[in-house]
Amino acid sequence: MGQLLQTPEWLGDGLKFDTDNRLDFDVDTVFPIVDTLNIVKDPDDATKTMRIDVGAVAAAENRVLTMPNRDVDLSVAVVDDGSESTPSVRFNSDPDTGVFLKSAGVIAISVAGNEVFSISSSVTTLAGTIKVGSVTVVTGGILVARSFNDAGRPSAGTAGRVIFNTDDGQLNIDDGTNWTLPDGTTT
Fold first, then answer.
1. CB under 8 Å to 82, separation ≥6 — which residues?
2. When comparing pLDDT for 161 and 50, which is higher?
3. pTM above 0.70?
């Protein structure tokens, strides 16, 4: 056991060193600590900086947390844009899988360094085989159409919809007014 150290005045009333020279403090009375003496400041531009070392960091390594000169809400994460091969939100064990900002207003997901999904306010793009539950919707770039018979087919009026008609054995395409066959014949 070493000699008992005096608590520096700037530490405040809630901080003290115990008999083993470990810093002991009462969280309720100590924090936040107002740095009125400018103890922590950058030597180049006099801005305040803070270094937080956590865990078993080797002596030759530093882990630095840079804090802006404002209050910081740690419940909000601001990250770099990232890329398809190096997503900004990724996993330690799989660094090329995660989420990245593809372009302004477009969020994308990559798996194994390949973009598999992107979404914007107007377009959603999916790659590969797409399943909804256990039903394959798209595979290998081929649309798997939902099947209807003539009696159960929905009314036309939404251009671009494609179904498989079990009565005529053909794809039926909604042109916005009618259901048509691929050759343009109204069905």
1. 88, 89, 90, 98, 99, 100, 101
2. 161
3. no
